[in-house]
Design goal:
This protein has 234 residues and is α+β, with helices and mostly antiparallel strands. It has helices at residues 4-7, 9-12, 14-27, 29-36, 38-55, 69-88, 93-110, 120-133, 164-171, 178-182, 184-192, 229-232, and strands spanning 143-148, 156-162, 195-197, 209-214. A 4-stranded antiparallel β-sheet has the order 1-2-4-3. Helix 3 packs antiparallel against helix 5 (38-55) and helix 5 (38-55) packs across helix 6 (69-88).
Length: 234
């Protein structure tokens, strides 16, 4: 059971997280204005910001700063109210996917890479995190296995049997848009200069998300996703 500090973790960080939301929407401002116009952009981002603030008490605590994936959960929660307003504006799945992937591309070009995911330190931490995930300390957390690479087809990987973002989106009634959210991983890999392959995801109903990272690899754009194995298996 969570203590009071853990229950209020995100609420206590409200000012910082709202600034993070504002920074994110500023980065992608031009894309959204091109799509909706400036006045509509202001209206939609204000609505999404209010929604994001209301979501703060609902974000699952998964260890705070001691868990690298906390930031992934926060980023996904910033995106969630934007997806809601896109649907409210009548955009269909493909329209939302195209727009959201463009947002990912701009966002990761601006956001600096903070970790070398191929460093010995990072990989050792990933192995330890995989072991710790099996303890199931927090219900909203990820559960995963570390996968040793062969240094030919991939450097290292992880198999997620549970995804914190997927669980949170499902609880918010947006599970149907998770396949779009998941392709952020490809936009990130492309922006940061490494390869990523994945044949299945929990978002498409598979038992695992099988990430395989390739040092010095490269990947094409992931939208439209016609050539992504995870979409072909849906």
């Amino acid at each position: 059971m969570l203590n009071e500090k853990e229950k209020n973790y995100y609420v206590k960080k409200k000012r910082t997280l709202l600034r993070q939301f504002d920074a994110a929407t500023t980065i992608v401002k031009d894309i959204l204005i091109a799509k909706f116009g400036e006045e509509k952009f202001k209206e939609l981002t204000t609505e999404a910001r209010n929604d994001f603030e209301s979501l703060l008490p609902q974000i699952p605590y998964i260890g705070g700063k001691d868990n690298r994936l906390t930031e992934s959960l926060v980023s996904a929660t910033i995106l969630l109210p934007l997806l809601r307003v896109f649907e409210k504006e009548g955009l269909n799945f493909d329209d939302i996917g195209k727009l959201t992937y463009e947002i990912f591309e701009v966002f990761y070009k601006v956001l600096p890479q903070t970790d070398d995911i191929f460093s010995e330190e990072y990989i050792n931490q990933a192995k330890e995190s995989a072991k710790n995930s099996k303890l199931r300390k927090y219900s909203g957390d990820w559960i995963f296995d570390f996968v040793e690479g062969d240094d030919k087809t991939f450097t290292w990987g992880v198999d997620f049997s549970e995804c914190g973002v997927h669980k949170f989106y499902k609880g918010q009634g947006l599970e149907h848009l998770m396949p779009i959210v998941c392709i952020a991983d490809f936009a990130m890999a492309r922006a940061y200069g490494y390869g990523l392959t994945r044949t299945q995801t929990r978002a498409h109903g598979a038992p695992i998300c099988d990430f395989r990272y390739i040092k010095d690899g490269s990947i094409p754009r992931a939208w439209p996703p016609d050539n992504l194995p995870e979409f072909k298996k849906k």
